[in-house]
Hints:
Layout: H1 8-18, E1 22-24, H2 26-35, H3 56-68, E2 83-86, E3 89-92, H4 93-106, H5 114-118, H6 122-128, H7 138-156, H8 160-166, H9 171-181, E4 188-191, E5 194-197, H10 200-212, H11 234-241, E6 245-247, H12 249-256, H13 266-288, H14 295-305
Antiparallel strand pairs: 1-6, 2-3, 4-5
Helix pairs in contact: 1-13, 2-13, 3-10, 9-10, 11-14
Amino acid sequence: xxxxxxxxxxxxxxxxxxxxxxxxxxxxxxxxxxxxxxxxxxxxxxxxxxxxxxxxxxxxxxxxxxxxxxxxxxxxxxxxxxxxxxxxxxxxxxxxxxxxxxxxxxxxxxxxxxxxxxxxxxxxxxxxxxxxxxxxxxxxxxxxxxxxxxxxxxxxxxxxxxxxxxxxxxxxxxxxxxxxxxxxxxxxxxxxxxxxxxxxxxxxxxxxxxxxxxxxxxxxxxxxxxxxxxxxxxxxxxxxxxxxxxxxxxxxxxxxxxxxxxxxxxxxxxxxxxxxxxxxxxxxxxxxxxxxxxxxxxxxxxxxxxxxxxxxxxxxxxxxxxxx
Length: 324
């Protein structure tokens, strides 16, 4: 199997070739690739305090739930940002979600049980993610938890390990399975009459499974190198600040004014597809220079760059969506 089997890269190339609102600055892209040939790209391990690990089978359930709920943490200007305190530290965003689930598991909540997830109520999830402020889109997250539980019970006898095992060590096959069997992961847009699969959360689930299990057992995949970057908010912001992504004047004004873009709009699809294709071109350029990397390693590098303000940084694009 190769990356064409998921259809992500050819779809993203198609969008970039037809885009009206976003373009790639290829000379800047090539220059950055040359500059980064000797940069460290080691992705952190799973053994940091924000993550939980039980038996391999329990860990699979935790990762699936974590990434089913891993979307849209930003709040409107003036609102209180959602934060969770855990063991004397305060976390926000993805890290807050991870520690909230870890805290619940440590308190005895059976989040590793498909039956528990299928019966999840808004009050129960609100208690699990309790903290300062409120997590955005709670109702959608409740539905995702229920959907994961129902799909596990209906299709896999309640055991995600059965689904992982059925893919026989293929990251691509597991990505496709997750997107097929759990509709909340079906991240496919439409552009100029064509389906554009991006599968952000399905792919990151597979990488998280690999990392959480130290790339062994259920976490051993032979084709992780065939996955793409994860189309989100932060990396387009970083690539724009670096000069790789360029927006039309109209789109730049909307993004910089923090105006909402409609989910599935041409502007949103172009931003996400251009981000994925840009990372792929950088990956290829660096490989040609003798520095082979996996897309998720570059993804982490860009995400980490975005954790401190860059000199030319502008706001990220805002979309209320369950896919990132």
